[in-house]
Amino acid sequence: QVQLVESGGGSVQPGGSLRLSCAASGIIFRTYRMGWYRQAPGKPRESVAHISSSGIRNYADSVKGRFTISRDNAKNTVYLQMNSLKPEDTAVYYCNADQMSWGADYWGQGTQVTVSS
To answer: What is the rounded average pLDDT of the residues 63-73?
Structure first.
């Protein structure tokens, strides 16, 4: 059974920080590109950050310099450190695992992040 379980979401004030975690099971974690996506009400799902199996990172322009994606292969976990949060960051954040060589693609159920004053 493949599972991606997100945690760490919550409600914070603008300028605050959160760290999201995504624990994976049922996959050979080190072989997957891991990523975070988000979807705000009334808007399409968008890519936030990715980290490849070799550690290459990329970010959406809207979060560059504020968010950091990392992975711990020993713990089968990917993280998203979110600093200097803005109200525009409010969304449901989803974890994604993509074994691009073979087309396998898995999603977590999402965790809510709310940034408001």
So the answer is: 98
Length of the chain as a residue count: 117
* Strand residues in the chain grouped as ranges (E): 3-7, 10-12, 18-25, 33-39, 46-51, 57-59, 67-72, 77-82, 91-99, 104-107, 111-115
Name residues whose C-beta falls within 8 Å of residue 73's C-beta, 6 or more positions apart in sequence.
Answer: 29, 30
What DSSP string describes 31-54? Answer: GSEEEEEEE-TTS--EEEEEE-TT
Q: Which one has a higher pLDDT value, 110 or 102? A: 110
On the question of pLDDT at 67 being above 90, the answer is: yes
Beta-bridge partner residues of 58: 50
Cα–Cα distance, 47 to 57 (Å, whole number): 12
| Token reading at 38 | 């988000």
Task: State phi, psi for 89 to the nearest 5 degrees.
Answer: -80, -5
Backbone angles phi, psi at 70, to 5 degrees: -150, 165
